[in-house]
Amino acid sequence: MKISMSSKDEGGASASERIDARIRELDDWRGKTLASLRKTILDADPEIIEEWKWMGSPVWSRDGMIAVGNAHKDKVKLTFSHGASLPDPDRLFNNGLNGKVWRAIDVSEGGVIDADALKALVRAAIAYNRAKKKPARSAKAKG
After folding, report:
1. Are 50 and 60 a contacting pair, CB within 8 Å?
2. pTM greater than 0.70 (yes/no)
3. Across the chain, which distance is largest between two alpha carbons, in Å?
């Protein structure tokens, strides 16, 4: 896992350290669930970058944003930035199904997410991000 240098706060804490702290703050099933989702996401690809955005949200990126994780009172939500464009053969997405861009996985207390299916979804998001990136122009093309 890479750590984004731009994700350090004024006190010098990295995004990963802030995510660790957030998980510790959630001393119930939500913290355990967020930690499990995080581990699965990071296990999907060693080049994933952790970031801390929007006043306290863990974000995972590689060649663009993959997903944002948030703990709510009754669920942990994992929102995929371009989920509507991703294949979901295991039907993990259960929120935002009618939207044109994002899709989410809401995990309630006691809910279990298939780790292999989530890794496949993360890898599909990375492939999507890579496909939408414009290739660098060669010296010949510049003229």
Report:
1. yes
2. yes
3. 60
Let me know: does 49 contact 4? Beta carbons within 8 Å: yes
Among the listed residues 72, 57, 132, the one whose alpha carbon sits nearest the alpha carbon of residue 101: 132
In a structure prediction context, what are the per-residue pLDDT tens digits for the chain, which is 143 residues long?
444 434 454 456 799 999 999 999 999 999 999 999 999 999 999 999 999 997 789 999 999 999 999 999 999 999 999 999 999 999 999 999 998 999 999 999 999 999 999 999 999 999 999 998 766 665 555 55
**Helix ranges, 11-98 (H):** 15-25, 29-44
Q: Give which of 99, 70, 94, 88 is closest to 125, Cα–Cα.
A: 88
3-class secondary structure, 98: coil
Inter-CA distances, 68 with 106, 138, 139, Å: 12, 34, 37
Chain center to CA of 95 = 15
* Cα 27 → chain centroid: 21
Cβ atoms 71, 31 nearer than 8 A: yes
The DSSP letter of residue 12 is -
